[in-house]
Amino acid sequence: MNALGLSMIFKMGCLCSRDYLHINSSKYFVLEQLGQGGFSTVLLVEHSRTRKRYAVKRIVCHGREDQKVALQEVEYHKVINHPNVIPCMESSVSGSPDPVLNTTSEVLLLLPYYSRGTLAYELEVRSKMRHHLEQSEVLRMFLQICEGVKAFHEAKPVPLAHRDLKPGNVLLDIDNTPIIMDLGSVAPACVKVRGSSEAQRLQDLASERCSMPYRAPELFNVDSYCMIDQRTDIWSLGCLLYAMCYFKSPFDIVYERGDSVALAVISGTIDFPTVTPYTQDVHELISRMLRVSPMERPYIYTVIESTQEAFSKYKSVV
Prior knowledge:
Elements (H helix, E strand, L loop, with lengths): L2 H14 L3 E4 L2 E11 L3 E8 L5 E9 L2 H16 L10 E9 L4 E10 L6 H11 L5 H19 L6 E2 L8 E3 L5 E3 L6 E2 L2 E4 L1 H14 L15 E4 L2 H16 L3 H8 L3 H7 L12 H10 L10 H18 L1
Antiparallel strand pairs: 1-2, 2-3, 3-4, 4-6, 5-6, 7-10, 8-9, 11-12
Helix pairs in contact: 4-6, 4-10, 6-9, 9-10
């Protein structure tokens, strides 16, 4: 057999051995892994017939509780319908989780693919070049993120909180439209904690599912008797806006130094660069969101209003 024939066999062999997965009646070829978290993997896939590309979130469930959480994520996608929140186009579940038999199930979520990647990637590139986003662009994007968060806080029958808002969970469309993703941390916004065991359970859940440099103070050390509400997201938005301005959350910097993030968060001390391309209005907005006491933080409606005011004021000056 000549070299061309061998080459064709190798190529056919590669095609035949490509990983693929089924979601309901459609087949998708796996192209590459886009990301991996503690509970899931995100894959870039291609529809076998249309060749259109999508992202698939694959969640492997080792027990019934894992599967329940994964299926709840699918349900949250059905509840939230907003242009700044990623939609789940289809989902499927296969297998049966049983830790005794060492079997697992798999939940797949078919999602749109955004080729530009995340806001975290954008900020990383800009950080290397020391190229800040324009203030008008920061406020425009932040306003859209807030509108997406508002959809969670207004959810029916109960308000929801995202609980893990950060640059890594914001995708960018081709026109710089921000899209909130990863609903795996979403939970009912208002939680009445009654007793130390409930407090510890919530604290453990937060440590698993809420990224430390963006986690609200009340989730680091949950009081035995308290009410947690959607203003956990407002704290995260404060950290997010700071990162949009200065490439990282103020507590990312603490973490990288090896200091205690928990102590820094609970102290509530926020430092702003003395040389900055941003106005005092932006710093004041961040500071209002980063109040240690959740009772002193604004709700999302006030954040949106303040952002709109800062945006209008800046545009009139420029």
